[in-house]
Amino acid sequence: MAIKAMGRRTRPPAAEVSEGTWIEVAALDKRYQPRRSAPTQALVDINLTVRRGEFISVVGPSGCGKTTLLKILAGLSPKSAGTVRIAGREVTKPLPEVGMVFQAPTLLPWRTIFDNVMVPAEIQKLDPARHRERAQQLLDMVGLTGFERKYPHELSGGMQQRAGICRALVHDPAVLLMDEPFGALDAMTREYMNVELLRIWRESGQTVVLVTHSIPEAVFLSDRVVVLSQRPGRIAEIVPIDLERPRDLGVMSSDRAGVYVDRIRAHFNAASVID
Amino acid sequence: MAIKAMGRRTRPPAAEVSEGTWIEVAALDKRYQPRRSAPTQALVDINLTVRRGEFISVVGPSGCGKTTLLKILAGLSPKSAGTVRIAGREVTKPLPEVGMVFQAPTLLPWRTIFDNVMVPAEIQKLDPARHRERAQQLLDMVGLTGFERKYPHELSGGMQQRAGICRALVHDPAVLLMDEPFGALDAMTREYMNVELLRIWRESGQTVVLVTHSIPEAVFLSDRVVVLSQRPGRIAEIVPIDLERPRDLGVMSSDRAGVYVDRIRAHFNAASVID
Amino acid sequence: MATTEVVGGARTPAPEKPTRRRLDLRERPQLWLVPAVFVVVVLAWEYGTELFSVDEYVLPRPSQIFDALGRQLGDGLFWSHLWVTSREALLGFLIGVGAAVLLGTFISQVKVVEATLMPYIVAFQTVPKVALAPLFVLWFGFGLTSKVVMAAVISFFPMLVNVIEGLRAADADRIQMLTVFGAGRAQIFRMVRLPTALPFIFAGLDIGIVFAILGAVVGEFIGAKEGLGYLLLQTNYNFDISGMFAVLVVLSVMGLVAHFVIRLLQRRLAFWAEDTRVIGA
Amino acid sequence: MATTEVVGGARTPAPEKPTRRRLDLRERPQLWLVPAVFVVVVLAWEYGTELFSVDEYVLPRPSQIFDALGRQLGDGLFWSHLWVTSREALLGFLIGVGAAVLLGTFISQVKVVEATLMPYIVAFQTVPKVALAPLFVLWFGFGLTSKVVMAAVISFFPMLVNVIEGLRAADADRIQMLTVFGAGRAQIFRMVRLPTALPFIFAGLDIGIVFAILGAVVGEFIGAKEGLGYLLLQTNYNFDISGMFAVLVVLSVMGLVAHFVIRLLQRRLAFWAEDTRVIGA
Amino acid sequence: GGSGDDAGAEQGAPAKLTFAIASAVIGPKEEVAVFAVAKELGYFEEEKLTVETINTDGSVAALQAVASGSGDVTAADTGSILGATEKNVPVKAIGGLVQNWPWVIAVKPGSTIAGGGDLKGKKIGVISLASGSAPYARAFVAEAGLDPAKDVELLPVGVGAQAAAALNDGKVDALALYTQAYTVIENAGTTLTYLDNPDVFDGIRSLSFAVGARTLEEKRDVYTRFLRASYKAMLFSAKNPEAAMRIGYKVFPQILAGKQADAQIATDTKVLTAWLKTATPTTGTPEQWGDWGAISDQEWAKTQAYTKQAGQITGDVELGKVWEPGLLGAANQFDKAAVVDKAAGYTAK
Ligand SMILES: Nc1ncnc2c1ncn2[C@@H]1O[C@H](COP(=O)(O)OP(=O)(O)OP(=O)(O)O)[C@@H](O)[C@H]1O
Ligand SMILES: Nc1ncnc2c1ncn2[C@@H]1O[C@H](COP(=O)(O)OP(=O)(O)OP(=O)(O)O)[C@@H](O)[C@H]1O
Ligand SMILES: [Mg+2]
Ligand SMILES: [Mg+2]
């Protein structure tokens, strides 16, 4: 099944931005200050540059600040200090060229699955006919054929999550932020979705930041893997994955992939996740 | 860290029930009949008996009916045909000796994490002092020390899920139903939680039915793994895991474990998860 | 039966019986309970008043009210009174509720506006409209307008409070989701806030229509030549207490019809709430 | 500022500035906007009425109202009127709202009860209480009771509708969760339904208290020896329109105070809604 | 409002007027005896007047209406007119209407109360404490030598059913209502005994015609014509109340509220007659009456004194400010015999 790129709708970069710094995070700090309880330092001194078209994964122990980082990139959460730029623009509010898969599916209960998937296209007033077609292709791809007219509560958890993935892809965003998009899927569906994602990414040239709990998944998909330390999240290491592309699942049984997986896993063991 | 069993509060079995048939599912059929859309056949002819104290895992592709099965066992969803018994009693409504971890954390936003964990104890009017102590031990075990007084929205996805696990364990239920309890956890935390769960189970003698997407996890934890086929879910195979207990994570690198994993995985490949 | 099937608290599900929607007296006992209650109440009233020999002018009996009702329904003038009041109430309702939705939307969107305007709105609301009514009449004349204004003013506030509260109830995660995809205020409003607010809005509509009818009637009390409120005064003045109760019965029926129309709309428009509602719990 | 921080629609966050709660005029512009609006309205009113030479009996000027207010506040009798009406309104409010909560709880728990009772409640609600007021007086006497009943009856319905709608709004998943852990109806009610209903309930309280004051005043219109409603009639009868407006001002202030008390309670009791509320979106 | 017609400045030119009925309902009272009859019999037409009615909620509202121009002319309580004038509300009385004191105290037949003195320690039902009936009850009690503040208790009981019930149930010992309200109560089957009013009440004026003071000069002619038509109608009604009542049904079908005219005519005529009695001289026959609408200075003085006692005015109101008797001369110029003849032989179609 072929899902075509829709043609980038990214505005030209604000300043002279080299391809080397499409997303730029510098000295980022994030501290939550709830009104009724103690503050939480979520992220400390995050520095990261992502090239245009790069595929980055972020891994780290639960509660280390991965979602927080993604929300700041998405312009959903204010930072406490530092700079965040996408395409040369300071991120102060969500940018239309960004698509996001949320950790929880967050579908609208008053819309059918199909209409949920169409939300970004509707918001951005994109050509309905073409995007309806694309929405259908995406739903077919993730195995939700026949569920287009159902309402979210009639779907299983994994099916809802897949619908959320379709929604993030429907407007063919230039930057794709994904927060554990495959967490509710079985191993096989997950591998299949990995392969499909990689294909879409290759064809459309998106810049992807993926949060995942699966180290092999991160290695298989990414150009680089950002390993965050335990809360408060700091960058423990950025591991470049030097496996040739295009990759297929076979590559994961290779020794080189195994070396990467072990190297990343070592960070986790060192941190002794839960005391 | 030692979490003691609180002593079973299971009523004596209704009839003469042998230890061999603690949970009994026979010819179970489930069909959803939404008012506004086409019906969905979720489960077909499920037959399963679980012994007292047994650890069962259920695996199967996304949308095959795992959650549905668990909800029927929990007495939350009416079946369309067949019989379901726990401890010799027909399940027509939730039984107090059952604890459940939901696929979504479902914490109450108006309660602190600690008070959320205490919900089952409060409902069943169990001795507050002892159960507060146990709640704290469980929270410490899952690494939520210091977050007891926070509200759910101040926690990360994985932290919320861990709170949900504590809640299911706090009243030391005789039967534990878990719907992908570790889905939002990173690999290391997940392994740690697997080990802890196994320890609690061994010490308390609970009967556990666990839905999981991780085949290695299922193999590591279970006495038997129930493999469901694609929707509509039928039992493709029930695989007895003949690995000696107590098990540690090392067992997973053994060849025998690998054989089980491959055997279960074969079912998924055969089904070719998404067309 | 709804889709999210939950076996509630202490209720036993009946999984064998396929769920069908039928005019089944066992499944919808209200179909006989409502008339039954009606008959019981009417009989108790009838024979209670007879037993304690309550005078007609203190509390007329159902049979007397029924007679008076029959008399009035046969009178062409009555229908024109009915039409006048219905029109006033409906117009007032539409204006009041419309204004409440507009202002409520505005208020709930701009925090400063709420903090600034709300005290004035509440202050204005607590002014008894009945006391102001003579001035309303001075300002808006003795015709339709003053009654419509009265109905509008009185149905405005319940709606406003509910609109504001409802538009605020939206889930933060859903708004975040839309925001990421570039939604502006208007789109967030349409796609999330409004649907979330629907239960509140329908509660407001339900209260609002009832109060609009009351407002029209009260407006007629102050200065009118026609309408059911006028008829109430007139029957009361004529010592025709049964006739007055007959008018009250007609007003009740008006309110009931409006209520059911609104509930029907609610079931149509806010269907998902029905679908995910828990059965019997 | 709330905890779930969302950068809203078109607003720029100010991440550099640490969020502090201060009586800062820039952060809480209502602190000067409310008085400013007040001054503007009063001035416009004062000079508008002068400019168009509006007569006092059509619309008195703020200065005249203020004079009358000063005169009345200096009168010991006025405070006893105020006390009488406050007591009637408060008692009526407590009774009406209490009955609405009880009945609403019952109704929302038992489907049949709702279907059976609701038509009668709506029918009763559409009966203009003002028309019934003379009968109220016949039934409940000339003293406190008839006014309290009036206030209770009129604040009952908005509360009832909101309680029913609110208790229904509970999330099915949360109820399932409690059910699994063995919760009965009462526990589900306390742990999920009630908290979910709080925003609805507070909307109902807000409407209810305003209507309770109105009800007490209207009750006094029909037959009273004291109270602000009586004072309204008296001032009107004496053509003391400024005095009448002064009473209306006092009623407004009563309503405002009640409103703010309820909103304060809401912020205390339904804090999580505040916390997860989205900023500026 | 209906006063937009400037042609009124010209003598005898057609004009439109709005008559504000000082009551929220239409009943067998001034709107029947004056308005309906004048309209139906063409008295307004003869004067080239087109008159419409509005209902206002009592005298105060009616006066506000004419002062603000929503209405042109009303028949309002004279005390209220005085009160309005004192508060600088631009209204002026132009002719009297109800001349005999309409308020009276009633008790149950067989009651021990036979005079004002017996009211000590009793409860008196008044319409409302902010209505003409409360000051009347106080004045009545004071006249009997009692202290109205201490010796009696006033209870607001409204009119009609509620008042009747209050008396019947013993919640009050006496009622202080106007005559016509009693007729309604008696029609409903309650019999009453009335106490005699002391002489002090003689000559205190009740309803009078009032208009907006600002338009008075400009519309003098129109108002004169209105008064003339009104007094003609009064004469007709006094001569033949039943015919007047039937005309009332025709012009205001809402009086019947769905009932049959023939079933109601007897009782309604009684009520109208009671009203007419208060609005016409106590002596003589209609044929002999003249000087319609006159209010003597002495009557004004008594009314002022009473109004002051009731608290509706605080000082004396200059007579010239409240009373414009200059229209009455022309208003009385009509053929009284013709009206009486027409009334005597009139049968409604
Ligand atoms: N409330 C419902 N109404 C209608 N259909 C439903 C409902 N709940 C589940 N289904 C359907 O039943 C099937 C099984 O759903 P279920 O949630 O049991 O799957 P699952 O195995 O838990 O999947 P996942 O791994 O994705 O959570 C799905 O096809 C789903 O669409
Ligand atoms: N709205 C909030 N208010 C206060 N604290 C918060 C909030 N959101 C997150 N946090 C805190 O910030 C830290 C990081 O949370 P975040 O959700 O970014 O973690 P995560 O890496 O996504 O974890 P997971 O893998 O479990 O989803 C946690 O300690 C959490 O308690
Ligand atoms: Mg996260
Ligand atoms: Mg599931």
Automatic annotation (TrEMBL), chains C, D:
Keyword Membrane annotated: yes
Superkingdom, taxonomy of origin: Bacteria
InterPro entries, alphabetized: MetI-like, MetI-like_sf
Main localization of the protein described in the UniProt heading: membrane
Segments passing through the bilayer: 30-48, 89-108, 120-142, 148-167, 197-222, 242-262
Topology of this chain in the membrane: Multi-pass membrane protein
Entry keyword Transit peptide: no
Region spans: Disordered: 1-21
Residue ranges annotated for the ABC transmembrane type-1 domain, each copy included: 78-266
Subcellular location: Cell membrane
UniProt KW keywords: Cell membrane, Membrane, Transmembrane, Transmembrane helix, Transport
Family: Belongs to the binding-protein-dependent transport system permease family.
Record PANTHER family: ABC TRANSPORTER PERMEASE PROTEIN HI_0355-RELATED, ALKANE SULFONATE ABC TRANSPORTER-RELATED, MEMBRANE SUBUNIT
Protein name per Swiss-Prot or TrEMBL: ABC transporter permease
Phylogenetic classification of the source organism: Bacteria, Bacillati, Actinomycetota, Actinomycetes, Micromonosporales
